[in-house]
């Protein structure tokens, strides 16, 4: 007797998907994932180790999670009337939003190219995803965005601020009009500020200054770029009524006691991470200047800890870097607007010097 294949129980669209790819970085200068390249100073490593050793890992997370929420509220200066919730990375928050908004006719809209998890969360939850192309210089196409919003009336519109992988901040006046358009049909706008430590602006200032105009806005951040990528901790803030409903979907104990303690420790030493971010911002400008001096190479302006760069031959540049021990991200096939582009994470001064030398040699 032929037994049925148990794979028949897995949705066909999932079987057709590709898993999120992580490049092997063994022995490489790892500049492909927008991580903070700096480790903790040795003395802080020792003190963190002592803290973690004293954590009651035999117990489920409890009041310490509330301590972390209060610490984050102080860190961001949480606006009056707003609430804050935690996620196991911002990826989980994106998934919870799709789950919570899965009502008949719901859809998700975002500019493209953008963060892949917006579209993936829609697909996994069975929602329709609408992507709207940016302009050729990676700005929001306001007319196209408004037309798509009026046609589809998306339940959620994502706006990354700055965007991944283009690394730019979009025009605030355009964003205000998109938020107002979403509000006209009851749509949510999620401002994704994953790269806020490296940006010259934050939408949180806009929320504080104009709370009524942002009553349909949720703001999402992560501690990954702050310097805790291995800790997996994201947070989202917004009007209490909205956050309270999304928080109902959060799995019990979604943030571990170890992750919470790491985050609390980091928030007690924000000056260390602020100095790291300042170094990364300075190195970003040095890197852009060096890239602009290479023949045929065009770096785009950046407000993140990455630089999008167009090469005469992206694959050749990628292979040349890899052969010289430097790993970056080839995004040239992710979207037509990214043709011949690589995304370079800003590393330490030494790592950036190695990357520049490798490019000069390979080109």
Question: What can you see in these coordinates?
Answer:
With 363 residues, the protein is an alpha/beta fold. The chain folds into two domains: 6-43 and 271-362, Aspartate Aminotransferase, domain 1 (Alpha-Beta Complex), CATH 3.90.1150.10; 56-267, Type I PLP-dependent aspartate aminotransferase-like (Major domain) (Aspartate Aminotransferase, domain 2), CATH 3.40.640.10. The protein contains 14 helices and 13 strands. The strands form three sheets. It has a seven-stranded mixed β-sheet with strand order 2-8-7-6-5-3-4. A four-stranded antiparallel β-sheet has the order 9-10-13-12. The radius of gyration is 21 Å and the shape is globular. The model has no long low-confidence stretch (mean pLDDT 95).
List the helices and strands and how they pair.
Elements: H1 12-15, E1 29-30, H2 42-53, H3 63-76, E2 82-87, H4 89-100, E3 107-112, H5 116-125, E4 128-133, H6 142-152, E5 156-160, H7 172-184, E6 188-192, H8 203-209, E7 217-222, H9 224-228, E8 234-239, H10 240-247, H11 257-267, H12 270-292, E9 298-299, E10 306-310, H13 314-323, E11 326-327, E12 329-330, E13 341-345, H14 349-362
Parallel strand pairs: 1-11, 3-4, 3-5, 5-6, 6-7
Antiparallel strand pairs: 2-8, 7-8, 9-10, 10-13, 12-13
């Amino acid at each position: 007797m032929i037994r049925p294949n148990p794979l028949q129980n897995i949705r066909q669209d999932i079987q057709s998907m590709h898993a999120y790819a992580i490049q092997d970085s063994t022995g490489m200068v790892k500049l492909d994932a927008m991580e903070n390249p700096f480790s903790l100073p040795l003395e802080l490593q020792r003190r963190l180790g002592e803290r973690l050793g004293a954590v009651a890992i035999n117990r489920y997370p409890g009041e310490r999670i509330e301590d972390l929420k209060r610490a984050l509220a102080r860190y961001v200066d949480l606006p009056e009337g707003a609430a804050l919730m935690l996620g196991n990375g911002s990826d989980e928050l994106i998934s919870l939003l799709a789950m919570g908004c899965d009502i008949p006719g719901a859809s998700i809209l975002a500019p493209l190219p953008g963060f892949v998890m917006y579209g993936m969360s829609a697909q996994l939850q069975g929602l329709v995803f609408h992507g709207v192309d940016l302009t050729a210089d990676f700005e929001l196409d306001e007319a196209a965005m408004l037309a798509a919003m009026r046609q589809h009336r998306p339940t959620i519109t994502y706006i990354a601020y700055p965007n991944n992988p283009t690394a730019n901040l979009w025009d605030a006046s355009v964003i205000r009009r998109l938020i107002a358009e979403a509000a006209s049909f009851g749509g949510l706008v999620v401002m994704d500020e994953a790269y806020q430590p490296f940006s010259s602006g934050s939408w949180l200032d806009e929320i504080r200054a104009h709370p009524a105009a942002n009553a349909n806005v949720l703001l999402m951040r992560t501690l990954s770029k702050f310097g805790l990528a291995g800790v997996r901790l994201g947070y989202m803030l917004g009007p209490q009524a909205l956050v309270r409903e999304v928080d109902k979907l959060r799995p019990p104990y979604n943030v571990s006691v170890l992750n919470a303690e790491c985050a609390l420790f980091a928030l007690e030493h924000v000056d260390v991470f602020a100095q790291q971010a300042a170094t990364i911002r300075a190195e970003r400008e040095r890197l852009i200047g060096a890239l602009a001096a290479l023949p045929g190479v065009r770096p785009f302006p950046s407000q993140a800890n990455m630089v999008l760069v167009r090469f005469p031959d992206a694959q050749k540049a990628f292979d040349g870097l890899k052969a010289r021990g430097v790993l970056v991200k080839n995004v040239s096939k992710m979207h037509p607007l990214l043709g011949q582009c690589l995304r370079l994470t800003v590393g330490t001064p030494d790592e950036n010097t190695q990357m520049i030398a490798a490019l000069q040699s390979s080109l």
